[in-house]
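Q: Could you predict the 3D structure of Reverse transcriptase domain-containing protein?
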Amino acid sequence: SLSAILKNGVDTGALEPVKICRGAPGISHLLFADDTLLFFKETHEQASFVKEAIASYALATGQHINPQKCSIQFGESCPEAIQQEVRHVLDVIQTDFESKYLGMPTPDGRMHKGKF
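A: Sure. Here are the predicted C-alpha cells for Reverse transcriptase domain-containing protein:
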C-alpha cells in the first residue's frame, strides 16, 4: 500500500515527516476515502522520494494519480525557487485547494482552534 511505502521511507530516513511542534510525532501522510494528503520537507530529494513512492504504488496496483487534480501548498517561509523546483519534480502546478471538501469550507492559511 502507499501508506506502507511512505512509512518505510520514514523508517529508513528517505522521507522526513513534518512536525507541528517540538516533541510532537511526525506526520507524513493522511488517507481519507480516495484522497491522500502528503507532508514532507520542501526539498528536491524529498519530492523525488514522493514521486518514486507514487510511481511504485501505481506500478503495483495500476492506480495512477492525475496531476491536474493534485494541489500543493508550501509554508510561508519557503523560497519561491524551491517551490518551483518541488512543483516541477512532482509535476503539480495547482497551488490552491478546492474551496470545499465534503461540503465543508477548506481552511486557508494557518490552522487554529477556531477553524476546527
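Q: Anything worth pointing out?
A: The two ends are 29 Å apart (CA to CA).
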